[in-house]
Specification:
10 helices, about 375 residues, two-stranded parallel sheet, alpha/beta
C-alpha cells in the first residue's frame, strides 16, 4: 500500500469534491440565453443537467460541455418520460424551463400554429414532471423563462409586472403561448402547491445567436439574410456595405437591448433567492433605444464616425411591436437585480463575433 492507502500498482482518479450547490435541470441548455446562464450556475458551485435536441441551430458545442458538474442529455424537452428519468434519478431540486421553439419575427407568421402547439407540449411535459417531483418531496421549484412578448399589446409604459392583469393578450401565437406558460405556473401552484418563479428577459444581446434551421433567406435591400433578429441583421448589412441601410418599419420602434450576461446573472438571482418564490420579474436594462438609434450606433462602430449614416424604411412585419419598454423597479427593489452593461459595450463583444460568423457562413 502507498502512503495514501491505495494499491501502488493501481491508478485511481481523484475523488471529485461533493457539490454544495443545487441540482438543477435546464431544458434548452444549448440555446442563446442558457449559453450565458449555465456558466454562472457552474461558477456558483451548482450541478447542472442539460437537455437539448439541437432543433434550432443544429448540433453545437458550448464551453461548459466538458465541465465536471455539467451533464448533458441529448433529447426532446417534450419527452416527459426522459425528463422524469433525469429529475427522479438525480433528485433535481430546481427545474429551469427554458426550452421553446423560438425564432425571429418572420417565424411568428411562418410557423404560427407550430409555435403554439409544440411549445404547449414542451410546457406540459415540464410541469407534469415537476408536479410529480415536488409531490415526491425533492423538487423545490420550477423557474419559467417567459418573454417580453407577453406585453405585446401593452398600452402602459414602462410596463410593470402588475400590468398583465389588465393588459390585452398578445396577438401572436408565440406571445400568447408565453403568457400561457405563466398561467401553467400559477395553476400548478394553485392546485399542487408547486412553487415557481417567472422571468421575462427583454431583448437579449450577445454572442451565440446563429441561423436557425427554419429561418428562410429573405432579401433586405441588396443583402440576403437568413435571420430576423435586429442586431445581427443590422450588423450583417453594414458589414456587407449596404447603403442606405434598410430598416424594417419607421425605425421608431423602441426596445431595451439587454446584454445577455446581465440577463444571466439576473436569472440566476431569481432562481436562487427565496424572495423570488411565486413572483414574476422583468429582467432588462432600464435604457431604451429606437431601432434607428441602435442602427446608428452599430454603423459608427463598424464604419467609423466619419461615414454619414443613411437609412431607408422597408415594410414591417405584422407583429413588429412598436413599444416594448419594461419597468424594472420590482427586480431591483426586491432582489437587487440591475442590468448595467451599456449597449455600446455589448456591441463591442457582438460585432466581432458576428463578423467571424458571417465569414464562416453560420448566420
Amino acid at each position: 500500500m502507498t502512503s495514501n492507502g491505495t494499491n501502488g500498482d493501481r491508478s485511481r482518479s481523484p475523488v471529485p469534491r461533493k457539490s454544495t450547490g443545487k441540482k438543477i435541470l435546464v431544458t434548452g441548455s444549448h440555446g442563446f440565453i442558457t449559453g450565458y446562464t449555465i456558466p454562472v450556475l457552474l461558477e456558483q458551485g451548482h450541478e447542472v443537467w442539460g437537455v437539448d435536441n439541437f432543433w434550432k441551430y443544429g448540433e453545437l458545442s458550448k464551453s461548459f460541455d466538458t465541465h465536471p458538474r455539467f451533464h448533458f442529455v441529448k433529447g426532446d424537452a417534450k419527452d416527459a418520460a426522459l425528463l422524469k428519468k433525469i429529475v427522479f434519478d438525480n433528485k433535481i431540486e430546481i427545474f429551469m424551463a427554458s426550452a421553446a421553439i423560438i425564432g425571429g419575427i418572420s417565424m411568428f407568421h411562418k410557423l404560427a400554429y407550430f409555435l403554439l402547439a409544440e411549445n404547449e407540449r414542451i410546457t406540459c411535459a415540464a410541469f407534469d414532471v415537476c408536479v410529480e417531483a415536488h409531490q415526491a418531496g425533492f423538487l423545490e421549484k420550477i423557474v419559467v423563462i417567459s418573454s417580453s412578448m407577453v406585453y405585446e399589446c401593452s398600452e402602459s409604459f414602462p410596463s410593470k409586472e402588475s400590468d398583465l392583469k389588465t393588459c390585452p393578450p398578445p396577438q401572436s401565437t408565440y406571445g400568447f403561448q408565453k403568457l400561457a406558460c405563466e398561467y401553467f405556473a400559477k395553476g400548478a401552484w394553485e392546485q399542487h402547491k408547486l412553487p415557481y418563479t417567472i422571468i421575462r428577459p427583454f431583448n437579449a444581446v450577445g454572442i451565440g445567436e446563429q441561423r436557425a434551421s427554419t429561418d428562410s433567406e429573405v432579401m433586405s435591400g441588396n443583402v440576403k439574410l437568413a435571420m430576423s433578429h435586429v442586431v445581427p441583421d443590422l450588423v450583417q448589412k453594414i458589414l456587407k456595405g449596404q447603403k442606405p441601410l434598410h430598416i424594417l418599419g419607421s425605425g421608431e420602434q423602441r426596445r431595451h437591448y439587454t446584454y445577455a450576461g446581465d440577463l444571466a446573472r439576473g436569472i440566476v438571482k431569481c432562481m436562487m433567492d427565496p424572495r423570488s418564490r411565486n413572483e414574476d420579474f422583468n429582467i432588462s436594462t432600464p435604457v431604451g433605444h429606437t431601432v434607428i438609434e441602435l442602427a446608428e450606433v452599430i454603423w459608427k462602430k463598424v464604419l467609423g464616425p466619419d461615414v454619414p449614416f443613411e437609412y431607408t424604411s422597408d415594410t414591417p412585419f405584422e407583429y413588429d411591436v412598436q413599444m416594448r419598454v419594461p419597468c424594472v423597479d420590482k427586480a431591483k427593489d426586491v432582489l437587487g437585480i440591475e442590468c448595467t452593461t451599456p449597449l455600446e459595450t455589448a456591441l463591442d463583444e457582438v460585432i466581432p463575433w458576428i463578423k467571424e460568423q458571417v465569414a464562416k457562413g453560420t448566420i
